[in-house]
Design a protein that fits this description.
With 371 residues, this protein is α/β, with parallel strands linked by helices. It has two domains: 2-108 and 334-370, no CATH class; 120-277, no CATH class. It contains 18 helices and six strands. It has helices at residues 2-7, 10-17, 21-37, 60-72, 77-84, 88-108, 120-133, 157-163, 198-201, 203-211, 245-252, 256-272, 274-286, 299-320, 322-333, 339-342, 349-354, 357-370, and strands at 140-150, 164-165, 170-179, 185-193, 218-220, 236-237. Strands 1, 2, 3, 4, 5 and 6 form a six-stranded mixed beta sheet that branches. Strand 3 (170-179) and strand 4 form a beta hairpin. The longest helix has 22 residues, at 299-320. Its cofactor is a divalent metal cation. GO terms for molecular function: metal ion binding. Pfam families: DDE_Tnp_4.
Length: 371
């Protein structure tokens, strides 16, 4: 990481760590204090031992770079070991320790927080942003969507059945996110069993909509989030299903003005839903590790990794801004092809690893040095 810190090339930072130079240094300032102070857990060393950062194979900058390389790539750990000059045991230990302390620092900084709005003015500000582009969606303040993150198959039958999703015939853990119109996450329900329906995962979110949301405000979602629950029908709006009963009744009764108004509003709901698609793509498109199967039997590790990615997304969105992410970051992430960034859902894991942008970056760097 010393080369990166001296050259400070923005594109190199965005490709390999997911952040520009200024944001990396912001994270490094938070990370360094904990990395230098806390001893790395080891089975052969007393847990109350004194930290000795000068004896470690990586400085705080190197350790943070290692963790961010890992989160932003799909490459195998053996490649990271070669890049950072670490043995397999040390690399694994540093990754686990670095990921945990990174998450703890993100929890304590305002830029990394994930919180539901508490002031009516905040709801109104979000609603105004959406209404400015979609005038008929007065009161909409956030977007909801679920994501299924692949996990490996467990040898334990009960665990495997809980993570098996019958619709896709694959193993997942399920998460639900609510995005504000500024790109930040205001609710994250993560690491539920893959066999659960999105509506089951979102129960805490339903409670927030019912009990912690002022009257007149609603979330935009899709039909995976049913509105039949008592008290929730006015708090979630979804686009019409194909051949919906409501539109057929209006057409049958000849109430074409009402039908056109309904369809016009539906078009705006569909258009507004693209915001959550961008949010999910920004989350998974950057943190490519979420595309690779996570350990099936280590629930705590999965939760740590997913939450760390979500909070890093918060930092990037708050410090960089949604417009800058769209115009600068996405251009770098898509360099050399849009496949991995936008079409990974239809790719097999072998092709996902082969398309890793960080591996391509180091391959090109090696070729340039050899020539």
């Amino acid at each position: 990481m010393g080369v990166y810190l001296r050259c400070c090339k923005r594109a190199a930072f965005i490709v390999t760590t997911g952040f520009d130079v200024a944001t990396f240094h912001f994270l490094l300032k938070l990370f360094t204090g904990v990395w230098d102070r806390v001893p790395i857990p080891r089975d052969d060393v007393a847990w109350r031992g004194v930290s000795r950062p000068s004896q470690r194979s990586l400085s705080a900058a190197g350790a943070l770079g290692l963790v961010l390389h890992f989160l932003n790539s799909t490459m195998a750990e053996i490649s990271l070991q070669a890049i950072f000059g670490l043995t397999p045991t040390v690399c694994s230990r540093y990754l686990n320790f670095g990921l945990r302390i990174l998450l703890e620092t993100l929890k304590r900084t305002p830029e990394g927080r994930i919180s539901w709005p508490t002031r009516p003015a905040k709801f109104q500000r979000y609603a105004d942003i959406i209404a400015e582009r979609h005038p008929s969606l007065t009161g909409a303040f956030c977007f909801i969507d679920g994501v299924k993150i692949p996990v490996a198959e467990s040898l334990d039958e009960a665990t495997q059945n809980a993570q098996y999703n019958g619709w896709t015939c694959s193993h997942y853990c399920s998460s639900v996110f609510a995005f504000a119109p500024d790109g930040t996450i205001i609710c994250a329900l993560i690491n539920a069993f893959g066999s659960w329906h999105d509506a089951a995962v979102a129960q805490d979110l339903y409670a927030k909509l019912q009990n912690k949301t002022p009257e007149g405000y609603f979330a935009i979602a899709d039909s995976a989030f049913p509105r039949t629950r008592q008290g929730i029908s006015s708090r979630i709006q979804t686009p019409l299903k194909k051949n919906s009963r409501q539109s057929r009744l209006l057409r049958a009764k000849g109430r074409f003005d009402e039908l056109e108004e309904l369809l016009s509003r539906n078009r705006e709901l569909v258009s507004a839903r693209q915001a959550v698609e961008w949010g999910m793509r920004s989350l998974q498109g950057s943190f490519a590790r979420l595309k690779m199967p996570l350990p099936a039997d280590d629930c705590e590790y999965r939760a740590t990794l997913i939450e760390a990615c979500a909070r890093l997304h918060q930092v990037r969105t708050r410090l960089v801004g949604i417009n800058q992410i769209k115009t600068v970051y996405e251009k770098v992430w898509q360099d050399g092809g849009r496949t991995l960034y936008e079409e990974f859902e239809s790719m097999i894991f072998r092709d996902i690893q082969a398309s890793d942008r960080i591996k391509r970056y180091y391959d090109a760097l090696t070729d340039a040095m050899e020539s």
